[in-house]
Amino acid sequence: MLVRTDGPALIRLAIHVGIVLFLASLISLRPPYWPALIILQGVVLIFLFAPLHECTHDTAFKSTWCNRLVAIVCGWLLLLPPAWFRYYHLNHHRFTNDPARDPELTTLKPLNRRDHLIYMTGLTTWWRQLLVLLRNAFGRNRDEFIPRKAHRRITVEAALFIAAYGIAYQILGDAVYLMWVVPALVGQPFLRAFLLAEHLNCPDVRDMTVNSRTTVTNKLIRWLTWNMSFHAE
């Protein structure tokens, strides 16, 4: 698991993306059971966050260019520009559970039942990601974890993402809603539940082997999440 290679990772990616495309094509045909397919599509689609996460750490592929390219594709599908996300996520690991410096704590984790329900809908996550994309595209990013030298890069990246969304809509039309947008909305709660287990109620210390936990799960989930369940390792 700790050995980086390109071949097996590319095969896994091809299967993962292939399932997304296959389900999208089925949904477009509107078979009798198509609403159930939206849920399945949502889960498989939203967990493209897993290869994005691993590519951010340069652990999905041995080749740097593979990590960068896959991060762009997955990030585009999930409204997460990878250059920005890389700085955001690495700062999260550097200062995990530090209320002053962990960027994930700028939006509070759920502390009660109401907060949990709101968090689990994923709607606040999508809203936050949309605002980040727009701020970046207009050159108004003020995140402290983004170095000045990277501002132009994340501005161009966000602008290109938005342009690509427009092109996708021109090509696919309203079909993007059933094949992509609605499944992503439906799938986000599954990702929120998975990610919640990584740090919630762990000690607020700098040691990453203590402030993170491994999630024990089955082989199917480990495959779908690209072994992200081994978060403490």
TrEMBL record:
Ranges annotated as spanning the membrane: 9-27, 33-53, 65-85, 117-134, 154-172
UniProt keyword annotations, A-Z: Membrane, Transmembrane, Transmembrane helix
Source organism: marine metagenome
MF (Gene Ontology): sphingolipid delta-4 desaturase activity
Fatty acid desaturase domain span: 34-233
One CC-aspect GO term: membrane
Taxonomy of the source species: unclassified sequences, metagenomes, ecological metagenomes
GO biological process, one term: ceramide biosynthetic process
UniProt protein name: Fatty acid desaturase domain-containing protein
InterPro entries: FA_desaturase_dom
